[in-house]
Amino acid sequence: MEHFMGEGWQLRPAGGATGEAYIAEQGQQKIFIKRNSSPFLAVLSAEGIVPKLLWTKRLENGDVITAQQWIDGRELHAAEMNQDRVAALLATIHDSEELLDMFKRMGNRPLDPEAILHAHAEERAEHHTAVDRALELLKQVPEIPSEEFVVCHSDVHHNNWIEDDQAGLFLIDWDGAQVADPALDLAPLLYGYVPKDYWAQWMEAYGRSLTTSLRYRLWWYRTVQCLDHVRWHALCGSREEEDFWLARTAELVEEAGRFSSE
Known about the structure:
This protein is an alpha+beta fold. The chain is about 45% helix and about 15% strand. The protein contains 11 helices and 10 strands. The strands form 3 sheets. A 5-stranded antiparallel sheet has the order 1-2-3-5-4. It has a 3-stranded antiparallel sheet with strand order 6-8-9, covered by helices on one side. α3 (about 85-95) crosses α8 (about 200-205).
C-alpha cells in the first residue's frame, strides 16, 4: 500500500474489523484510504451520507483503492442517537432511489425474513426457554410489500455515526449494507437508543408514522437481532453478555403479548 501511495506518504491502520482501512498523511494532508470498500461509495458521497470521495483507483491484482476526505470529528454518543438529525439522515438513506437502483443492478436481492428465521432455527447453539419461545413467536413472519424494501446500512451502532467540526453528520462503514425492510435498521436504533415514549416523535422526524404493522416489524427484527447476540456470545463463551441478551430476548417475548391483543 505504501508503494502505491508514492513517496512521502505515511500510512497507519485506521482500525476496523477488516484491517483494510488506513490513514494516509503527507505534511498537512490527511486522507482516509480503504481497500475494496463499498462499490456504491460514490453515490453515498454524492448524497452527503459519507465523507467526500476524492478518488478511486484499481490495482493490477483487481483490488480497488478509494480515498476519502478525512473528517476531524467524533463518534456520536449513545445519548445523542435520539436526535432528529439521526432520523433525518437515516431517512435520506432509506429514501434514496439511486442507491437502491444501483444495489439492485449489482444483483443484490432483498433479505428474506423466512430465510432469516430458517437460519436461526438451524444454527442456535444452545436451548433456552426464552430462545425457544422467541423462535415460536417469530414464525409469524411479517409481510413486507416489495415497495417497502430499501438499502439498509445494517450496523447503525452509534460508533458508526460521525460528526465533523461543522456539526455535519455522516454514517460510515457500509460493508454490510443490503436491501431489506427498513425495520432492519430502525429496530436496533429505536430499541437500543430511543425511549419508547419518544418513538412516535422520532419517527415523525424520520418521515413515517409508527403504525401497528411497523411496530410489529420492529419487534420481529429486534428479536432476531437479540437471538444473534445470544448465539454469538454463547459461541464465544461470554457468559455475562449472553445472559444480558437472553434477558433482552425474554423482555421481547413478554412484549409480544400486546400484538395478539391488537
